[in-house]
Batch of 2 targets.
Target 1
Amino acid sequence: MACSAKVFIISSAAFTKTGENMIRSRRAITRLQGTVLAVIVIIAAIAGGVYYWTSQPAPKPPPPPPPPKKLTVWWSTPVFAKEKELIPKYIDQFKAATGAEVEWVQFPHVELDQKIMTAVEAGTNPDIMFQAHQHVCTILHEKGKLLPLTDVIDKIDKNDLFPFILQMARGRDGVEYFLPYYPQGNWFHYRKDLLAKAGYSKPPETLDQLLEMARKINNPEAGLYALGFPLGSTTINDAPMTFEQILWAYGGQLVAADGKTVMINSTAAMQTLEFYERIIKIDKTQTPAALTWGAYDNNAAFQQLENIAFTGNPGGTIVSWIRDNNPKLYPNVGTAPWPKGPSGKNYLLLCAMGFSIFKNTKNPELAKEFVKAFCDKTRYKELVMATIPYNFPMYKSMLTEPVLKDPPMWEMFSQLLDENIEKRLWGYATGPTGAVSEIYSAEIFARMIERVAVWGWTPRRALNEGFIAIRDIYAKWLAA
Amino acid sequence: MLPYLLLTPTILFFSIFVVYPLGVLIDLSFHQKYAGSPSIFVGLRNFQTLLQDTGFIQSISNTAVYVAGAVSIRLLFAFGLALILNQKIKGRSLFRGLMLLPWLTPMVPAVLTWRWILSPDYGILNYLLRELHLITSPINFLADPLLAKATVIAFNVWKYFPFYTIVFLAGLQAIPIDIYEAAEMDGANKWMKLRHITVPYMRNLFAILFALSAVWTMGEFVSVWLLTRGGPSYATHTFATLAFEQAFLNYNMGLAAAMFVIVLPFTVGLTILITQYLVKEG
């Protein structure tokens, strides 16, 4: 009984305990349920909030900034290391100042003309070109493809410019389409030591003196020819520029100032061809190798091979190369005015490398700003001085820089200030035009020389052929 | 239907890359077209201008001389060399390898090297000739019309003969050896074997190589342009260099196109001849 009671007590205790446990469990369940419910409510609230937030129309993002304006600039490959450093620096400054993108593409200058013309044909031309000798620009200007640069040129200090700079900038319609950034002269070079050896203390002043000196200096057996004038049709511009120099000395010219009357069929032109005939075939003082020279071979003959005594060259590359690479020869390099002929005057042919802007550019104002940025006088001075003496500054005031006073350089640059030397643009009397460019690129002058030198034609026959070709080119351009 | 479907890609490719450009070229030849200017229809005027142009006529005659000279000398030289290199001589593999050098040399360095060798100012050839007392003053190989012509032909022969030699060598090795053995047993000497076995066996190869070589040489531009740019005074201008000069230096696209159109029948004619020959032989 006691046992039963004990069991009962235990059982009832156990029951009581179980009951308490059950009550505790129920509370736990209730608590759990409450927690779950709370979590659900919270999640639902969050989900609802998120739903509400995401279902609302999103606030509009700020409009993306407009893409930066872009310019493509094609540039005749710079020659000097300092120039290669400065141009990208100025372009970066321009980019930072305007936020524009600039694609700067370099081409060797003998290829740039062809690249530009084919690009124009394909409609893929750049916005701006920096080109040598204006050839393509004159053609493109006369075909109406270039933007007038009057407002760019108006911003530069015109009073300080050499007068021929503006002449170079203008087309035959009077519109300024080209900025002659790097002007160049067609310099007459001679070797002081070779002249001294032959008993001469100064360079020839007349063509007759030149012929006489050449005969005395000439020594082909020793590998030395007196004259190394560029002759053939493979010299790009050197042969026609030399031809014009000699033609002017004889009192001739390509065309009248009206730009219509071809004047090459003249006694002066005959005398010019006879001059070539004399030096090549009679005196044999001109190196025959010049008939196959490329654009740089006269430089190489004078500065590296040292096997010619006289040459002509547009731009002062010969002097700059010798200064930097052949210091032993440097004191023996002389430059002088081209010898006078029967006309009794000295002439200096001028050309330039410079900027043009295409009319179809999408950003004409930006393109003009680009050119203006390069014309900033401080930048310009730094850049052009880096290229001395290949080019000379377009500003007269910059000729006073001490670096230019070095004798071979000053002998060149002082000619710019000498009023006795008449400065003329290639293609005188009009200067560069579409017709003149075609005459140069078709190598009509060089072909006349080749006819005499290679094929044995008389100067008269060669001149007749050249005259007909030139007359036809003018007729075509005037008709256009 | 299926065959036409399968031919479509070829027809499309041919139309886009051959027929269309050819059509444009022919159309251009009837126009006065300067780069950068609109084209003006001028009918046959470009052809008339060309046929009166002494420079163009000279370029055609130069092309004929160039093709005839380069092709014949190259084929004969390559065949002779192939005969030698087909013999069991010492160092045969080395000579076969060395022989390939001109062909493997890139064109521009090859031309510049030739210009350097031939230069009257600093060329090694003039130097050697003077040292040997064969000349007193330097020869200007590229400034004399005749020598310049000979030089561009010599360069072309030198540059491309290895290819032809290899092809001839392959042809020689394909001739069954037992034919030679049988001929020897019949008492044939070397000359007789060459004349009655080798040459007849190589006849087809000669014909094909001749035609291919003529077409390729006719269109050769780079070597002539780099060596002489057609100079001195048109002496080495072929129609290819003159057309390039008209198109890319004088920007006269119409006249340049007309030059190609005039020469087109010759190149097409040669191509048809080759094709017919191959079909007949096949």
Note: The domain at 53-251 of chain B is CATH 1.10.3720.10 (MetI-like fold).
Target 2
Amino acid sequence: MKTFDTLADLDALSRQAVIDLLYRLADDELVIGHRNSEWTGHGPILEEDIAFSSMAQDEIGHAQVYYQMLHQLREADPDSLAFGRKARQFRCASLVCLPKGDWAFSVMRQFLYDSAESVRLAALAESTFKPLAQLARKLRGEEKYHLMHGRGWILRLGDATAESHERMQKALDELYPHALGLFEPTEADEPLAQSGIAPREKEMRTQWESAVAPALTAAGLSVPENTPPIYGGRVGRHPAALAELLEQMQLVYNIDPKAKW
Amino acid sequence: MRSRDEGTKGRRDVAVKDLGTKERRDEGNPSRQSAIDAQSAIDNRQSTIQAVWAALATVTDPEIPVLNIVEMGIVAGVRDSAEGVAIDLTPTFVGCPALEVIRDQVHGAVAAALGRKVTVRFVFDPPWTSDRITDEGRQKLLAFGLAPPRQGSDLVSAGLPSDGDDAAGSVAAGLPRPEATLERVPCPHCGSTDTVLDSPFGPTLCRSIHYCHSCRQSFEHFKPL
């Protein structure tokens, strides 16, 4: 299959599809990164304060590189993309927008998100679009520790006490349809698949479902069945929580976009 | 899918090879003076490259100040051309807050040593892995009290084979499983492997926290990547 060695090698159709893909990747990372940072200073134990803060730092760093790539494709600069857009212009899934909830909720979200990202990055590491394939390979190495963290806690809390089990199951039931929404197909789905840049969302969803089920079952949790996915994020329809998050995150930028600190 | 990044480990070699090509081309020149000039251009360029590497070795990682960036393995390539000196750095962690500091310091050190135009950019090809840390760098990490990363593991997936008690059962499903690379890390203080992982995240993105049952000390470990 034809490869695209540099950004300049993309034809018009692939270029538009890559831009669509990069916005989804970047916005998911930025928003979950911000949600993770809400545990800084509030983690239930010191190690988890550090873990969520480190993951926040990783995710925001990854978002920045995706935004940088968008900028090279002649979109706005990374700061404007992160701080200068309204909620409806974001392309993140509802999963990452939801408020952090209790710690069981955040840990479960992180596990569902990281396992989906793991499936996605493994596929992108084989992309015909080389700059993205190189980046995906790099990010996989970092993300594996996020997944390890989440999986460890799912196993520990899933069958520890009646209360921990109940909280984890409740979080899973609530989050699962949002996690399925990570695989909402967009108009870019076909062009990306046909040019070998990224697989169809449907294929990745199937892979993800078969990857998370054993881990959840091992933790004594029941995987929700026949749950319809919650879509809308990829076309800019978000829970109200996103606008609230952005209001806080973009506050300083909106007062003075040129401020340096 | 294999890509061209396989062959680019250390652009230093590429630069030297480029000179080799020029040298061979110049061998066909009958003029002795011209051959001498060509040789001297090659010598100049080689000494420039050496001077750049020497300057790079003066830049340390702000978060692990005992290591310089060459020992850390983050210099991916050095090229010398008429436009100036170009340096490629391959970041350890993409979100590492030290990157901009390192970029500025590299720029400053090389520009001061050579008095020429310097460009520094970050690349992901080749991707940095902890196997790029030199042997000397690993010794320095150990002396600093930071356990060096395990080498040679499958650093992307760290998917060590399941040892039978894989409760999560997700190896079969293809999710990476780095747990094993963080178990029984040798303690940098006493060398014991009677150690446990305390947290996969530590004071910087690249470190995990462990506890040694033998000398009863906490220690940090540079995570394999």
Note: Chain A touches chain B through 52 residues (CB under 8 Å).
